[in-house]
Amino acid sequence: MLGKNKWGIHPDTHKTPTEGKPIESNALPGRVILPVSQHIGAPAVPLVKKGDLVKKGQLIAEGQAPVSSHLHATISGKVLEVADHPHPTLGKNPAIVIESDGLDEWAEGLPTERDWKSLDKAEILAIIKNAGIVGLGGATFPTYVKLSPPADNPIDTLIINGAECEPFLTSDHRMMLEYSERVATGILILKKVLGVENVALGIEDNKMNAVKAMGEALAGTGVKVMAVPTRYPQGAEKTLIRTLTNREVPSGKLPLSVGVVVQNVGTAMAVCDAVRNGLPLIERIVTVSGSAIAEPKNLKLRIGTSFAEAIAQSGGFKTPPEKLIMGGPFMGVTQYTPEVPIIKGANGILAFTHEDINDGPEAPCIRCGQCLDACPMGLNPSMLSILGERSFVEEALNEYHLLDCMECGCCAFVCPAKRRIVHYIRYSKKMAAPKGGK
Ligand code: SF4
Ligand code: SF4
After folding, report:
1. Which of 331, 380, 408, 419 should be mutated for ligand 1, with most atoms under 8 A from CB?
2. Is there an atom of ligand 1 within 6 Å of 407 CB?
3. CATH of domain 28-100
4. For residue 421, how far is its CA from the centre of ligand 1 (angstroms)?
5. CB-CB contact of 241 with 249 (8 Å)
6. Fold for domain 112-277?
7. N or C: which end of the chain has fewer CB within 10 A?
């Protein structure tokens, strides 16, 4: 499995267009669309209705289930409607639409300065929950849940993920350079919550300036800042755990099973902002890039801003795009309209021209084995694709560990036959999911 030495791929990183560009704050959006589902778990329940006046940072939807997350207004203004809108991952989904009043006023009591060192674990967890923080690396699992492992599952290690291994994306990189102190403080707060001594921040070695900046910000804290080899998908939880701790998460298990919790650098910064400054999660940093974008940038965007507005702020399209993606080119989600909103897990908006969409015709598998070498999970992607193509789901599940596939796309990237391996795997997973599941 992960213990094998040969795994992953070395695609062109395409980070040059944005890695040297400071984060720009966008203009106040005229309108935001805030889906009540932008996290793993049950949707948040709306607390506002059409016509209500809201302030920035006000709680507008409540995560009531054990795994869910709160949602806050990201601008001040009037609720235009609570209705279905295009969603980056869920087709159409209920969302709260707010029209700006142009004032951008905070809700009463926000922001609030706090001495986080005087807070205990329960108080910090409550703040993180109330701030609506989820995994900002893209996974969007509610952070307070991840920080509350079962009592019989001891955690001894916290890993902070600053790998940012997907090509094109530089939002975490710029964050570590420009907001090192906030990221560092967030890491120390997470360390306190978990009560662990062993904390490591992993950053790919194509970002040595970020390794230096974070090393300085964390000097004397005991947190290890480690450069890890640039190799996709280094930033996947299970691969980063293996690289930094030499522990292997068993098939079908979570990082908790080997005593590890992984949090992204963006999540750490959001934790700092919430715990130290009383700020709910209302904005995030997004890379806007790709061959169809006129001026690739890193933008600080209010959650709920439309992709179209972010793209306009990046000079618009220089050529009509063939493909629009939320996230990275490997694990991102293709969009059918630029009217979708930025959600909490959106670390990138990528737009590509026709020339860059290298689909080409698919051919039968020639059994070259390249996909087996590339798979970071030690799977047999060739067999998984063939079984998916033929709808042999039980065999894929039971004999070929279908559910261990993280859909990283390494196999499809190296396949000379251009097999749509991930497509077949996703199809099998969909067939295998319980009714109503994804
Ligand atoms: S997409 Fe799945 S099968 Fe393909 S390389 Fe990644 S983990 Fe392996
Ligand atoms: S890389 Fe493609 S052609 Fe080669 S074994 Fe895998 S699926 Fe078959």
Report:
1. 408
2. yes
3. 2.40.50.100
4. 8
5. yes
6. Rossmann fold (3.40.50)
7. C
pLDDT digits (tens, 9 = 90+) for 117-157: 999 999 999 999 999 999 998 789 999 999 999 989 999 99
Query: Are domains 28-100 and 112-277 of this chain identical in fold?
Result: no
- Which of 365, 373, 379, 405 best tests ligand 2's pocket when mutated (most atoms within 8 Å of CB)? 365
| Domain 282-356 = CATH 3.10.20.600 | yes
Give dist(CA 85, CA 98) in Å, integer: 13
Where in the chain are the domains? 28-100, 112-277, 282-356, 370-432
Quick one: pLDDT at residue 252? 87
Non-local CB neighbours of 401 within 8 Å, separated by 6+ positions: 251, 252, 377, 379
Tell me the pLDDT tens digit for each residue of 277-334. 999 999 999 999 999 999 999 999 999 999 999 999 999 999 999 999 999 999 999 9
> Band of the pLDDT at 27, cuts 50, 70, 90?
confident
| pTM: predicted TM-score of the whole model, two decimal places | 0.95
Q: Which of 316, 330, 337, 307 is nearest to 408 (CA)?
A: 330
Q: Which residues contact 43 (CB under 8 A, 6 or more apart)?
A: 36, 37, 61, 68, 93, 94
